[in-house]
Amino acid sequence: MIDIKLTIIKLLNYALKYLDLRKEDLVYFYNVLSNILQIDINEYDFKKINIKQDDLYTIIDDLNDYINAKKLDIIFDEILSILTPTPSSVINKYNDLSIKSKKRAFNYLYHLQINNNYIKKRDIQKNIVVKDNLTNLNLVVTINLSKPEKSNKDIVKSLNISNDSYPKCVLCYENVGYFNKSKSIFKKDLRVVPLRLNKSDWFMQFSPYSYFYQHIVVIKKEHVPMAVDKNNISALLDFAKMYKFLFIGSNADIPIVGGSILNHEHFQGGNYTMPIMKAKIKKYDVFSNINKQIKSSLLSWPCTTFKFVSKSKKQLINFIDSFLQYYKNYSDEEINLISNNNHNTMTIITRYINNQFEVYTILRNNRTDDKHPNGIFHVDDTISFIKSEGIGLIEAMGLFILPGRLKNQLNECKYIIENPSNESEIIAKKPYLENFKPLIDSIKNKKYKNIEEYLIYACRKILFDINVFKYDKDDIHLNKFIDNFCKEKIHK
Ligand SMILES: [Zn+2]
Q: Cα of 238 to ligand 1 centre, how many Å?
């Protein structure tokens, strides 16, 4: 049996060191926690114990065992959230630190959210990461073991959820401190900091699943749908200049080509150099005859991406907005790129580096047809078994988040590859493995050396699949697209 009194003493020591617990509050929390955990106390026996951040996970496991054994109606996160500084004290400390250094303030919030287990560090460390040293794209493939998979159909469904639920969605500001057991929403440990972007109110929080280092979500205070437009381009640039050590990007604003949440405006970013940011330039000065103050280039990247660099925020906003409007109405039926009813949009990412803005615009189209019911510019059916969700901005930039189910499924494939004589027997027992036949066969046929190599090439293929100019041999149509824009602008 766990020595729960010792666990509480450890936890209080942990909170003193990692959660800004004040000495004056020790007796108070000793009593509060003992009461919640239904412990009889005969004396106050707090003592100093040397504790490390990683000790949190043994404390959590011990608390969990105790709670289960005692059948208490509480979850361990509640205990940690009680010990977390209140939202206002977090904001005050953040603002104080910001005066000296934005980065210090940012690191404070990041560590606080790891320390109170809002960021699931232990789970994230279990993720499987495959790095690409085969192609020149520097792709990163992660099998995410902490977050459930959502299909495009689920995402369309979530758009139709009635607006009278509370909070209106998982991103709403009203989630701070919210707990609903029946909906499995626990946000008592969430802390956010306010932001002013493009003259409106936003706030920033960390992603509990951290797809990459210091993964943040920047959310509009008002619950309004995602929109890729001039205002939000301006908000992105405001953020990039404020937080020069982070990139920030917006998902597309329509299903299939965007993220999983479309009903609340938000951006994602982090302290990480995405593969796309290391891509070479395919063509320089593509639009320099229209605007000489903006360096514009076409990237050497599987899905058509333009990169714009300038010191002038105003010039960039106006230029990118006009480019966005142009693309939104652009169609080229010969390559099946049809904008009908707003099927065209862009994924926009920016960062502020070497005293200038750098903006990446990835062209997207979400149309479906009889031949491609999941999307014409979507993951091809032959590899959808590794990824069926919409390809959002993180993937479009070359960092792939694959569903956790793959861990076991790929192990089963590995077993089949190593024991080919059992193949039909295993597949008969586990029919879903039928979908994995292309993977199994291509490794058996020595097209790929192993599963990791297959994953890298499959993810590279996904980037080609989502390319809106994918039916465009020799870039004839892409060049026409560029030339037409130049002509339009020059004539105006
Ligand atoms: Zn919302």
A: 22
2 contacts 62 by C-beta, under 8 angstroms? yes
Q: How far is the CA of 160 from the centre of ligand 1 (A)?
A: 13
pTM given for the model = 0.95
Question: How far, in Å, is the centroid of ligand 1 from the Cα of 296?
Answer: 35
Structure confidence by residue, pLDDT tens digits, 409-421: 999 999 999 998 9
Q: What is the pLDDT of residues 97-136, one digit of tens each?
A: 999 999 999 999 999 999 999 999 999 999 999 999 999 9
